Amino acid sequence: MKLISLTLATALAILTPVSANAAQAQISDSAEVEQWRAAMQSARWTGPMLASNAETLPQGHFYTEPYFFDFISEGKHNPGSSGFYQYGLANGFTVGLQPSFGYGTDRPNREVALGDFKLLSQLRLTHFTPEHRIPTVAIVLQESIPTGKHDRLGPSKNGHGAGSFATEVGVNVQHYFLLKNGRLLRGRINLLKSFPHGADVADRSVYGTGPGFRGHAKPGSRNTLIAAVEYSVTREWVLALDVIAERTAKTRLEGRYGADGALEKQTFPASRYVGFAPAVEYNWNDKTGILLGVRVIPKGHNTPSSVTPAIAFSRFW
After folding, report:
1. Is residue 31 exposed (0-12), middle (13-18) or buried (19+ Cβ within 10 Å)?
2. Which residues contact 76 (CB under 8 A, 6 or more apart)?
3. Strand partners, 69
4. Model pLDDT for residues 141-197, shown as the tens digit of each residue
């Protein structure tokens, strides 16, 4: 009997510290989860100016985020608008539209003109939560629709489209970082590649052709990388910064002036640039926010420098 009691006592002495350590670890994990929950509840976001969200909408909900901007390059102002209009078709799957419009400033183009727009779809693969802190990852499939006028332009009219359908595929990633002061840092990465299908071209066009031209243009493919970070200063205020790098391959054009004209071929060189976009976000509540930012692109390879101030309004429905 003494031997049995001694054995039980020894076993308890060995097992008790292990159980205590496990319980302590569980308490510590629970406290960390609660810390993450508190941090996420105390932060509101509209999203940065350029990088897209990797999250998807809950089924049956809408999200709207119209943008208004002024693209300024080589002393010329080109105001316009774009935006995201999305719907949660299913949990983990979002569809939407991204229209674009241009507003002319000179007399011949003083009108609202429809540009190309995109059909959007996004499938979420993973989901960040306070309990499972893994990056949110989504795959993207988008299609540009050539709704903007690109050819048969009047003598002084500007074009507002490429004339080509284009399929875009990519990956969006989003992750959170909890800082020592209890505030959140949110990071995003978008990696996209666009494949234009080509456009028929007639007369004066955005490709530099003149009256009487008949031919075909093949815009170059485009690679885009966007990295963004947002810092939740307070529950309402957020500071954001995007960095974008984009490369467009050569565009090829061929055609004739008149039925008996000689076949003409032209190649427009590839271009690339690196730009950045600081912004400030303010969120009235969990559903409504505003963003003020500016995209700055220094002169790149076959890319002129530009500055584009913008304002956006976000609303979750």
Report:
1. exposed
2. 105
3. 80, 310
4. 999 999 999 999 988 888 889 999 999 999 999 999 999 999 999 999 999 999 999
For 65-104, what is each residue's pLDDT tens digit?
A: 999 999 999 888 999 999 999 999 999 999 999 999 988 7
Residue with tokens 């031919």: 215
Burial of 172 (0-12, 13-18, 19+ CB in 10 A): buried
Contact 203, 209 (CB under 8 A): yes
What is the H or E stretch that residue 4 is in? helix 2-41
Give the 3-state secondary structure of residue 48.
coil
Question: How far lies 309's CA from each of 72, 74, 285, 295, in Å?
Answer: 9, 15, 24, 6
How is the chain split into domains, by residue range?
42-316
Partners of 195 in the β-ladder: 167
Q: Which two tokens stand for residue 231?
A: 């810092």
Superfamily of domain 42-316: monomeric porin ompg (2.40.160.40)
What is the DSSP-derived secondary structure letter of residue 17?
Answer: H
Q: Which of 34, 57, 30 is closest to 120 using CA atoms? A: 57
User: Is residue 198 over pLDDT 60?
Assistant: yes
